[in-house]
UniProtKB/TrEMBL annotation:
One of its GO terms (molecular function) is transmembrane transporter activity. Pfam families: ThrE (PF06738), ThrE_2 (PF12821). The keyword Cell membrane applies. The lineage of its organism: Bacteria, Bacillati, Actinomycetota, Actinomycetes, Bifidobacteriales. It comes from the Bacteria. Residues 67-97 are annotated as: Disordered. It is found in: Cell membrane. This is Membrane protein. The chain crosses the membrane at residues 300-322, 328-346, 353-375, 387-408, 420-440, 460-477, 540-559, 579-599. One of its GO terms (biological process) is succinate transport. Belongs to the ThrE exporter (TC 2.A.79) family. Residues 463-598 form the Threonine/Serine exporter ThrE domain. GO terms for cellular component: plasma membrane.
Length: 608
C-alpha cells in the first residue's frame, strides 16, 4: 500500500521559536502506512519527548557581520530543549484570536518532535527512517545556507552528509530557502526550509566542513574536506567546551592536556589510524546535538570589537582609495559608531534594510561631525568632503555579491540572480542614506587629494592598509583569528598588486579581474598545502572564507556612492558614468574567482 502524507509544523513553545514548513512523504511499507493513517485520524504527535530539539533557522546580516546569538548578522541561537507542546494540546488550551493561532504554524522548518523522527531519536543514524535521515541532511544545508555560502556549496554539503546514509538528494537552493527531495531507495520524502533573513558567518561554514568529516568518519567513510580527520574529531567533540565559545582551537588544545571525555571519547581510538568499518557510528540524537552546538554558538567578537574592526577596515579602505590622514580619521570614527549601532539594532532582529539606512546615516554624520570639529583647529579638515563615503563602506554586501556571481557561473541562475538583487537592494539603501546626509549637510564629494608619496613608500603603506582592511572585514564575517590573518595575508598581496598595476596603466576593471584571480589561486594553494601536510592541519579553511574577505576590499564602493550622489543632483550623465564604472569592476571580481576555481577544481572545470 502506498500512502501520501502531509505533516504540518508543530510549535516549539519551549524555545519561543517556531519551525515548520510543508513536507510530503511517500511511505511504502504497510506498517508505516498504518501509522500515518492513525496520525491522520487525529492521534497527533507525542510532544512529550523533551530530548528532541527543534530546528531554528539561523538569521544573519546583509554584509557579513556575524554578531550576537540573537542577531540576524550572526550565528542563530535557540534556548535549550525542554518539553514540547503539540498543536492539539495548544488548541485545547485558552482561546486565542485567529491571527495568533495561525502565527503558531507560520514557521521555517519541520520541527524535530515529529513522531517519524522521534521514534528514531536514539537509533543509529544509518538504521533510522528516511524522515530522521532527511532531518540531518536538510538541517546541515539550512545552517550552511544561513551562513552565507553559495547554493553550490550547500548542495555539495548536503550530498556529503547523505552519502554515508545511502540517501540520494535532489535540492533546489535559493537565497533563503531549500527544497530537498531525499530517497534511500525504499522511501521518499520532500522537505522545504526557508530562512527569515540572510547573512554571513564564516566560522559556521568552517565548522560545518569539520562536522561533515566527523560524520563521515564515524559512519565508516573517509574524511572529505581535511586530510587528517583527527582535527575534525577534536573540533566537533569540543564544541560543548566553554572555552570553545571564543576559540574552537583553544578548546582543542586544552582537551589535549587530558584524556578525552564525553559520549564521543570512544571514537578517538580509531580516528587517524584507519577508517571505521562496519559500525553504525552515531545516533540521530548525537548528530543533532552537534548541530545544536554549531547553530547556537555565540559570535566570536563583542559589539565594541566588531566596531573597532569596522573602523580599522574602513580607515584602511580610505587610504587605498587615495585618502589622507583626516579622511582616515573621519572614516574610523564614523564606521566604528555605525557598526556598533548595527550590532545593537540587529540584536533586536530589526529589518536589515532599515538598519542599513540608519547605520549608514549615523556613520556619515559622525564622520562629518568629526571633521568639522577638527576643522575648528585646522581648517584644512573642512575640505575633506569625500571622507564620509569611506565611513559607510562597512555595509558593502561582499559575500552575496561574490557568491551570486559564482552561482551564475555554475548555471544556477535563480540563486545567483536573487543574491545579486539582494546585494543591489542593500547598496541602494546605503547609497540613498549617504546621499541624504550629503544633501542635508551640504557635502560635495569630489574625490581625494593626491598624497604625494613616493612609489616605494606608497606601496608599503598599501600593503599594510590592505592587510588591516581585509583583517577587519574578516572579523565582521565572524572569522576566527587564524582565518582572519590568513585572508589578510592573501588580500595584502593581491590588493597591493592590483593597485600597483593600475598605476602602470592597466584598466581598473582588468586589475580587479587579475586581483580576484590571484586571490582564488592563492586560497586554493593554501588549502592544497594543508591537505598535503605542508601546513598544520588546523589551518585548512574553506576557500570561500579566504577569497571573499580578500577581494571585498576591491569592491568599488566609492564609485557606487558617487553614482547615487550624482543621481541625487540630477546629473544623470555623471551618475551613469560612475555606475557603469562600478558595474564593470563588480562584474570582473566573481569572474576572476570563478576562473581560479575552474583552473584548480575539477568539479568546476567540467559541466557534469
Amino acid at each position: 500500500m502506498t500512502l501520501r502524507r502531509s505533516t504540518r509544523g508543530v510549535p516549539d513553545l519551549s524555545r519561543n521559536s517556531y519551525v515548520a514548513c510543508a513536507r510530503t512523504c511517500t511511505v511504502t511499507s504497510k506498517q508505516q502506512g498504518e501509522q500515518a493513517a492513525a496520525a491522520a485520524e487525529g492521534s497527533g504527535v507525542d510532544g512529550g519527548n523533551g530530548g528532541a530539539p527543534s530546528v531554528l533557522a539561523g538569521g544573519f546580516s546583509d554584509t557579513g557581520a556575524a554578531d550576537a546569538a540573537n542577531d540576524p548578522s550572526g550565528a542563530s541561537a535557540s534556548a535549550g530543549a525542554s518539553a514540547h507542546v503539540s498543536a492539539s494540546d495548544h488548541m485545547a488550551g485558552e482561546p486565542e484570536d485567529t491571527a495568533a493561532a495561525v502565527q503558531h504554524f507560520h514557521t521555517h522548518s519541520i520541527p524535530l518532535d515529529m513522531e517519524d523522527i522521534e521514534r528514531d531519536w536514539d537509533t543509529p543514524v544509518t538504521d533510522a527512517g528516511i524522515a530522521a535521515k532527511a532531518s540531518v541532511i536538510v538541517r546541515v544545508g539550512m545552517l550552511d545556507l544561513g551562513a552565507g555560502t553559495g547554493s553550490f556549496r550547500v548542495r555539495e554539503m548536503m550530498h556529503r552528509i547523505a552519502y554515508p546514509l545511502g540517501v540520494h538528494v535532489r535540492a533546489d537552493v535559493n537565497l533563503t530557502d531549500i527544497e530537498a527531495a531525499c530517497t534511500d531507495g525504499k522511501d521518499r520524502i520532500t522537505e522545504v526550509v526557508d530562512l527569515p533573513t540572510t547573512g554571513v558567518n564564516t566560522e559556521r561554514i568552517w565548522l560545518l566542513e569539520h562536522f561533515a568529516d566527523w560524520f563521515n568518519v564515524n559512519l565508516g567513510e573517509e574524511s572529505i574536506y581535511h586530510a587528517k580527520p583527527t582535527v575534525s574529531e577534536e573540533l566537533v567533540e569540543q564544541l560543548d567546551n566553554p572555552a570553545s565559545r571564543k576559540s574552537a582551537m583553544r578548546a582543542v588544545k586544552q582537551a589535549r592536556r587530558e584524556p578525552p571525555k564525553g559520549q564521543y571519547a570512544q571514537h578517538f581510538d580509531h580516528v587517524g589510524a584507519a577508517a571505521v568499518t562496519g559500525g553504525n557510528g552515531i545516533t540521530v540524537r548525537q548528530a543533532h546535538d552537534r548541530l545544536d552546538l554549531i547553530e547556537r554558538r555565540p559570535p566570536l567578537y563583542s559589539p565594541w570589537f566588531s566596531g573597532l574592526a569596522s573602523a580599522l577596515a574602513c580607515a584602511a579602505f580610505v587610504f587605498l582609495l587615495g585618502g589622507g590622514p583626516y579622511d582616515m580619521v573621519g572614516a574610523f570614527i564614523g564606521a566604528g559608531l555605525g557598526q556598533f549601532l548595527r550590532r545593537l539594532l540587529f540584536a533586536h532582529r530589526l529589518n536589515q534594510f532599515f538598519v542599513t539606512f540608519v547605520c549608514v546615516a549615523l556613520a556619515a554624520l559622525a564622520c562629518t561631525g568629526t571633521l568639522r570639529m577638527i576643522g575648528l583647529f585646522d581648517p584644512v579638515a573642512l575640505q575633506h568632503d569625500t571622507a564620509y563615503i569611506g565611513a559607510m563602506l562597512f555595509v558593502i554586501p561582499g559575500f552575496p555579491l561574490i557568491t551570486g556571481g559564482l552561482d551564475i557561473a555554475k548555471i544556477d541562475f535563480p540563486s545567483g540572480i536573487q543574491r545579486i538583487t539582494y546585494t543591489f537592494a542593500i547598496i541602494l539603501m546605503a547609497t540613498l542614506a549617504g546621499w541624504m546626509v550629503a544633501t542635508i549637510v551640504h557635502l560635495n564629494p569630489q574625490g581625494f587629494e593626491p598624497l604625494g608619496l613616493s612609489p616605494l613608500v606608497n606601496g608599503l603603506f598599501r600593503l599594510v592598509a590592505a592587510f588591516v582592511g581585509v583583517w577587519g572585514f574578516s572579523v565582521l564575517f565572524n572569522s576566527p583569528q587564524r582565518m582572519c590573518l590568513t585572508a589578510a595575508s592573501i588580500g595584502a598581496i593581491t590588493d597591493t598588486l592590483r593597485l600597483t598595476i593600475v598605476d602602470f596603466g592597466v584598466p581598473p576593471e582588468a586589475a580587479a579581474f587579475i586581483g580576484a584571480l590571484l586571490s582564488g589561486l592563492l586560497a586554493s594553494a593554501w588549502r592544497s598545502s594543508v591537505r598535503r601536510g605542508w601546513l598544520p592541519p588546523h589551518l585548512g579553511y574553506p576557500r570561500i572564507c579566504l577569497t571573499v574577505p580578500s577581494i571585498v576590499i576591491m569592491v568599488p564602493g566609492l564609485y557606487m556612492y558617487q553614482a547615487m550622489f550624482q543621481l541625487g543632483q540630477f546629473d544623470t550623465q555623471s551618475a551613469l558614468d560612475w555606475a557603469f564604472r562600478a558595474f564593470m569592476v563588480i562584474l570582473c571580481l566573481p569572474v576572476g574567482l570563478a576562473m581560479a576555481r575552474v583552473i584548480t577544481d575539477k568539479s568546476w572545470r567540467y559541466d557534469i
